[in-house]
Amino acid sequence: MNMIEIRNVTKRYGPATVVDRVSMDVEKGTITVIVGTSGSGKSTLMRMINRLVQITEGEIFVGGQNIMAVPATDLRRRIGYAIQGHGLFPHRSVAQNIATVPQLLGWDQPRINRRVEELLGLFELDPATFAGKYPHQLSGGQQQRVGVARALAAEPEVLLMDEPFGALDPVIRGKAQDDLLAIQRQFGTTIILVTHDMDEAFHLGHQIAVMSEGRVLQCSSPEKILTEPADPFVQQLTGTSDRALKLMSLLPLKGSMEPPRSGLGHSLAQSLNLRDALAEMIWQGVEEAAVRDDGGAEVGSISVNHLLQLGRRS
User: Taking phi first (over 0 means left), then psi (-120 to 50 degrees means alpha), and beta for anything else, what does residue 163 get?
Assistant: First the structure.
């Protein structure tokens, strides 16, 4: 089922066309990443979904409803929005920031308090410590988590994220991305995220839309973007030198393992991807390893040679 349908959407500013006849579907409960260089139209396209930017031509449907049939303020209260820099209100506490939209929607105070506490707990921010703090008292990573928590506070079905991790250093950025994946799985939120970082797109996206000069050149799964680039620009954007490793990071060990073999001293979790499995085996200095399921039962085996063959095929 599609949560968002974008139909032949165009945005012009005078004679300049910023978004040019874009059509795209976003399935309910998935993450779609829009990627492209600066000025490609990716942020403009996303902001048309919550009507922060008005559509020149075309239609957008959210949950089957044309967004132009809904008052803009009502639409924005139903759609979470998180931006780079977090946009937190500096003179409101963490709890007050997170409560912003629930208060606008008229939630009673006990319900708001429960939701604030739940979200702070999910983002590993102890409510007793953080609820009363102000944004300037938080680190960049903590501010980012509060910004996403605020966007999720009113339980939106759709969350729009515009370069949400762009200001974070690489280590914190990786943790923030993993936080987002865990939260998305828990709530089943439909997310559209804009980034210029192709690695971030591969890490987060169920589908990736590559934009250039206002057009969507390709909108496909990460695997197809890598193996069947629809345009030279798409191929250039994904890079060529580490394409095999990128593809291996998208493929689960569970689908590539060999039959179980007795006597193997090292084991790997079947939840690993092929790239992480290879890295672990090289780090441990083993040629072959058992593969175990979540319960610890041995379900297969894998060898370095087999992983390298799979990588070469990629």
Answer: left
